[in-house]
Design goal:
It is built from six helices and eight strands. It is of the alpha+beta class. It is globular and about 45 Å long.
Length: about 200
């Protein structure tokens, strides 16, 4: 338990450094309500600060299960930081550009050491469906924007997910966004064994 808290402390330190550099600037997404007081970027920023405060609370007085969750959240954030800002390229799977299923696959490879299928429709078949009210870090989110191509992303926590956006590249997004909330279909849980 003491070793986990030390590791968690180190990870929280690096998270604080990386969170200060997270930048979600970009063009408005399609479907955004212009008259809305809170922008999608503000939602993401607010939810990220809440997540950090909750992690600090858990670090000081959380249970072992809560500490495990925080460690996973920080591993997911580290993977996000590896790809943050990478532009969206349909069929891409490198730092020069990637699509949503490549990003989901890369995150799973880095965090869990687990190889997901390459295509989004196949990725969501390897897990068990979970309700939006029961989401956990690492769940795969499935969207169907405007009945076009299927879209996947990786859930981080507190409504946030790691996303390869066609307009902004790799960013953190929120299920509270008017756009993503509208097109969310379901989530799946793969339950791979996480790397230590």
């Amino acid at each position: 338990m003491k070793k986990k808290k030390i590791i968690l402390g180190i990870m929280c330190f690096f998270l604080a450094l990386s969170c200060s550099s997270i930048n979600n600037k970009g063009k408005s997404g399609k479907g955004r309500n212009i008259g809305k007081i809170t922008s999608d970027e503000q939602i993401v920023g607010s939810r990220l600060k809440e997540l950090k405060r909750e992690q600090d609370r858990i670090f000081s007085s959380g249970t072992a299960d809560e500490i495990d969750r925080v460690i996973l959240e920080n591993q997911l954030l580290k993977s996000f930081n590896n790809w943050k800002g990478t532009k969206y390229v349909w069929g891409g799977d490198s730092s020069r550009g990637m699509d949503c299923s490549a990003l989901t696959r890369r995150v799973y490879r880095e965090v869990f050491g687990y190889e997901l299928p390459r295509v989004s429709t196949d990725q969501v078949k390897v897990g068990k469906k979970v309700s939006v009210n029961n989401l956990k870090p690492g769940d795969i989110l499935f969207f169907k924007p405007e009945n076009r191509v299927n879209h996947t992303a990786v859930y981080l926590g507190n409504s946030l997910f790691i996303n390869a956006s066609t307009s902004k590249g790799v960013v953190l997004s929120s299920l509270e966004s008017s756009y993503w909330g509208k097109y969310f279909k379901y989530a799946v849980r793969v339950d791979p064994i996480r790397k230590s």
